[in-house]
Amino acid sequence: MKIAVIDFSSTSLSLLVEEVSGEMMTPVVGLRRSVSILGYLSKKGKLSDRGIEKVVDSIKFLIEAAGKVGADSVNIISTASMKMIRNYGEVVAAVKAGTGLSITNLDGQAEAYADYIANREYITLGSSLLLDIGGYSSSIVDMANGSMASMYALDIGPAALFQSFDGMYPEKDDVKKIRKKIDKALEKNMVFPERTFSRIILVGSNAEALYSVYADYYAVSDPSLKTMDRKKLRKLIKHLIISEDRALILIRNVPEKVHMLIPAAILAHEIAEIYSAGELVVSDKGVKDGYLRLLVEESNV
After folding, report:
1. I want to staple 33 with a disulfide (CB 3.0 to 4.6 A). Which of 58, 112, 168, 273 is the partner?
2. Domain with 73 in it
3. Do 97 and 190 reside in the same domain of the chain?
4. Are residues 203 and 273 located together in one domain of the fold?
């Protein structure tokens, strides 16, 4: 049996198809369509007709791709931050009319739990904190504790942080404001006060984009390892803030995320610094992986 999950987020629509045989799950195909919701939102927070059309067309494309590899079922999920769309109901209705499928919107904790399920293998590494860098929100999970009480969804995604400053890139003073906003969110929600973790597990397309820039900047010989040193990440951020050629490395590696990359980098580094984690590891599994696994586990109950 092959199961497909389409993830509708604020920056893209992505597809994962896995073949399920007993307890074995094998990835079949993974695709991503970049659709930045930011570019189609009105000042009142409504998604334009053109934006809705782009979403529906992209979902149709991914459903067709799932069909070509023999998917037996297709599930569509959206992240918690998509509730920022004031006319979200219109988007859901348009997708239903255009594809016949409904969208399941995950709340913050459900999203964090799916991240946890997808990355349970990291539990064996010991003291690890998972950070899913979304668009408008981010999930934070203590990997050693599978209870909902150890999972947080905060409004500190790079798209939200991007709105903290003017222009395409933050200046030195803007970085301080961003860090304070992150610190305030953690303190307000009492996210693991006075705790330390050995490493941060980074999840999401923004984390993958950040690693691409990191690997390029440091000419990493084996980029498949996808690990970053906290001190080196700080040096990279400094380069991205003050260097005149910062646009070159961003456009070369992540042209679709030039406005999100620096806030994402600051967020990742600030979380690592607050919790004294010296290493950051980028996972290739996220919400849709965990959601797919939950579907399989529920069907086997």
Report:
1. 58
2. 2-105
3. no
4. yes
Q: What DSSP letter does each residue of the chain carry, written as one string?
A: -EEEEEEE-SSEEEEEEEEEETTEEEEEEEEEEE--GGGGB-TTSPBPHHHHHHHHHHHHHHHHHHHHTT-SEEEEEE-GGGGG-TTHHHHHHHHHHHHS--EEE--HHHHHHHHHHHTGGGGGGSSEEEEEE-SS-EEEEETT--SGGGEEEES--HHHHHTTSSSSS--HHHHHHHHHHHHHHHHHTT-STT---SEEEEESHHHHHHHHHHHHHTT-S-GGG-EEEHHHHHHHHHHHHH-TTHHHHHHHH-GGGTTTHHHHHHHHHHHHHHTT--EEEE-S--HHHHHHHHHHHHHT-
pTM of this prediction exceeds 0.85? yes
Q: What is the pLDDT of residues 44-75, one digit of tens each?
A: 889 999 999 999 999 999 999 999 999 999 99
Say if residue 68 is in the same domain as residue 206. no
pLDDT digits (tens, 9 = 90+) for 79-118: 876 777 899 999 999 999 999 999 999 988 899 999 999 9
Domain end call among 58, 74, 105: 105
Instruction: Give how many domains the chain has, as a whole number.
Output: 2
